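Priority: medium. Attachment 1 of 2:
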């Protein structure tokens, strides 16, 4: 039976969330005098600001329903403040919300990571201020993303817990809309138009299922947007490089706080500063805000794990009592290089060295990577042939080639350290696209307009097919709800939890599932892996979990 009422409410909630995020983003850009070229950037700025507020407040209080209600109410008031702008962009907002709706309705969470640590950490943010040493409860809590702080603020009296993943869906739709709009912008150069089409295709083909997002795909999409802005920065018709640099700085920080692998973008930022110092040296108020959020993020990491950038050993402080060295950096590298699949007798520290891992990795994960990128290679090959048929000579900027070279360096570092597709697909796809564009020799605007219409049609068909197939399948099931289930792998399944007391306290406890399941969106703090050596201390109103 079709649950029409809940489907309608789902869309209304998505539309409301989109509008509130846009309103926050528009107010943010107005306050810091940033010019956002399209509504997608307002969404990125809005998400960044809301996540930053959540991070800041969590040092002092839980991001509970009261905080969520205040953020919702302020956002609702900002809608009226920005009403003229929102009316002008109304069609785009509806299109964007519809894409997010189709992608999210009747969808599953990312498995197993959401149940393992994404959702338990969101729950912990909603119920507790920062717990020092939380990483001792679950070592993956040190790997949590800025996206979890963003999700936490959408737990309010109206949405309850139904909208906590809506920002992820909206960021996906915003990224797709961004590149489609950029590809038809009259101010866009030829190379930006082509680059935008290629990136839009990549997002639609490779990142079209919410259940596969995790913390990864939203980061890769933002990386594509970062690449486009770096190239825009050095175009001849860019008369406001300072503004473009401000956008680049925010997206770079956003990427770092979502995925640790994107700390590599510091190479791009250093390059930009060296090449454009005069344009960089402006808008101190805005840069101070970004520095503050950067420092708070590092401090949050330190409080949770004892490391400023977890799990990088060089950033860990051995002298603090809550720092527990789990060798997760070595374990993560071994896992990325296929250690669980290896049949040799190497210890993990030997396995990751001297390319001892290459044979196992090549026979397993390399095949997966080739399958993922083959379809993109085929599509891009057809596009290269299409562009090279006729048109005026197409010249590339030196900056685009420079970005390609830096991407190649990123790909090399990724391959040497963490060669898993979901970690490095942003680097891989960007390198493939930039290499493909270098092969293009001709450009004809009429042909491009035909191509754009074809690509839009294909994207609509692709996203609709991939998601409507799931939706129709769920509609045939009894008692199926359109909401993204955050409590278990099964809509009708209820996980039971028990309390586990700390060794030194009869009053303080944490939760764990009774049947050795994952925590999901549980009472907090929660871990699926019960540890017998945990103690708890207090400094003022702050809890410290120790081993």
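Attachment 2 of 2:
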């Amino acid at each position: 039976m079709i649950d029409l009422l809940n489907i309608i409410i789902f869309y209304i909630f998505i539309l409301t969330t989109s509008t509130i995020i846009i309103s926050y983003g528009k107010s943010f850009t107005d306050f810091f005098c940033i010019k956002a070229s399209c509504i997608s950037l307002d969404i990125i700025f809005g998400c960044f600001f809301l996540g930053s507020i959540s991070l800041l407040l969590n040092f002092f209080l839980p991001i509970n329903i009261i905080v969520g209600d205040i953020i919702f109410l302020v956002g609702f008031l900002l809608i009226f403040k920005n009403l003229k702008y929102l009316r002008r962009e109304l069609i785009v907002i509806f299109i964007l919300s519809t894409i997010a709706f189709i992608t999210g309705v009747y969808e599953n969470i990312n498995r197993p990571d959401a149940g393992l640590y994404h959702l338990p950490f969101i729950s912990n943010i909603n119920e507790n201020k920062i717990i020092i040493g939380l990483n001792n409860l679950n070592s993956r809590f040190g790997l949590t993303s800025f996206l979890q702080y963003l999700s936490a603020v959408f737990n309010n009296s109206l949405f309850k817990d139904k909208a906590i993943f809506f920002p992820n869906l909206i960021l996906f739709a915003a990224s797709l809309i961004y590149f489609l709009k950029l590809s038809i912008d009259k101010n866009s150069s030829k190379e930006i138009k082509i680059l935008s089409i290629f990136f839009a295709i990549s997002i639609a083909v490779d990142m079209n299922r919410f259940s596969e997002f995790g913390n990864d795909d939203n980061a890769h999409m933002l990386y594509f947007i970062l690449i486009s802005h770096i190239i825009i920065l050095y175009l001849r018709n860019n008369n406001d490089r300072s503004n473009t640099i401000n956008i680049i700085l925010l997206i770079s920080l956003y990427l770092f706080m979502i995925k640790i692998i994107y700390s590599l973008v510091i190479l791009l930022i250093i390059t930009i500063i060296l090449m454009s110092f005069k344009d960089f040296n402006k808008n101190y108020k805005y840069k101070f805000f970004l520095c503050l959020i950067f420092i708070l993020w590092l401090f949050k990491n330190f409080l949770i794990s004892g490391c400023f950038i977890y799990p990088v050993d060089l950033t860990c402080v051995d002298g603090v009592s809550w720092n527990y060295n789990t060798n997760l950096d070595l374990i993560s590298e071994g896992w990325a290089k296929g250690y669980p699949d290896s049949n040799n007798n190497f210890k993990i520290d030997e396995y990751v060295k001297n390319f001892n891992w290459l044979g196992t990795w090549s026979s397993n994960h390399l095949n997966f990577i080739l399958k993922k990128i083959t379809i993109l290679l085929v599509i891009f090959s057809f596009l290269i042939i299409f562009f090279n048929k006729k048109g005026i000579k197409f010249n590339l900027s030196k900056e685009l080639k420079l970005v390609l070279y830096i991407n190649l360096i990123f790909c090399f570092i990724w391959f040497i350290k963490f060669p898993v597709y979901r970690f490095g697909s942003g680097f891989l796809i960007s390198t493939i696209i930039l290499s493909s564009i270098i092969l293009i020799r001709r450009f004809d605007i009429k042909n491009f307009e035909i191509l754009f219409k074809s690509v839009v049609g294909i994207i609509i068909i692709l996203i609709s097919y991939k998601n409507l197939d799931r939706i129709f399948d769920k509609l045939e099931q009894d008692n199926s709800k359109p909401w993204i289930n955050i409590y278990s792998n099964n809509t009708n399944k209820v996980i039971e939890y028990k309390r586990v007391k700390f060794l030194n306290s009869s009053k303080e406890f944490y939760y764990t599932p009774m049947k050795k399941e994952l925590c999901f969106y549980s009472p907090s703090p929660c871990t699926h892996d019960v540890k017998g050596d945990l103690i708890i201390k207090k400094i003022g109103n702050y809890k410290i979990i120790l081993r």
